[in-house]
Q: What sequence folds into this?
C-alpha cells in the first residue's frame, strides 16, 4: 500500500479550482413544462393550471388555453359562477390542435362535442 502525503500548499489550489469551477457551472434547468393533467383527465375549471385543449363538459365547447394565459405562473383570472360545478376534460397538450383532430380525440375520450 502506498501512502501519499500532500502539503497544505498543494491541496489548497486544487480545492479553490474545484470550488470556482462549481460556481461557474449553472444548474441544469428542466425546460420541459411540468404536466399535471394527462389528456383524458377531467378536472374542475377553477383548478385549470396548464395550457392545452380542453372540452367543456357542460356544453361540449372546445376551450383552447395558451401558455400566456398563466402570467407569472398564476392561474388565469377567470371566474364563472353557476349552480353546478363546471368541469373540463383535457384532450391535448397542444392548444392549437386542429378541429378535426380535436373531435377525434374527444370521441376517443367519449366526450360530447359541439364544435
A:
Amino acid at each position: 500500500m502506498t501512502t501519499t502525503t500532500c502539503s497544505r500548499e498543494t491541496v489548497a489550489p486544487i480545492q479553490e479550482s474545484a470550488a470556482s469551477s462549481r460556481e461557474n457551472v449553472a444548474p441544469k434547468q428542466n425546460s420541459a413544462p411540468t404536466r399535471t393533467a394527462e389528456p383524458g383527465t377531467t378536472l374542475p375549471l377553477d383548478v385549470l393550471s396548464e395550457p392545452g385543449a380542453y372540452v367543456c363538459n357542460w356544453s361540449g365547447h372546445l376551450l383552447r388555453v395558451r401558455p400566456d394565459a398563466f402570467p407569472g405562473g398564476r392561474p388565469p383570472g377567470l371566474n364563472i359562477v353557476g349552480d353546478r360545478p363546471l368541469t373540463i376534460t383535457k384532450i391535448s397538450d397542444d392548444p392549437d390542435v386542429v378541429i378535426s383532430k380535436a373531435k377525434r380525440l374527444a370521441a376517443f375520450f367519449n366526450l360530447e362535442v359541439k364544435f
Q: What stands out?
A: The mean pLDDT is 78. The helical segments are 8-24, 99-108. The radius of gyration is 26 Å.
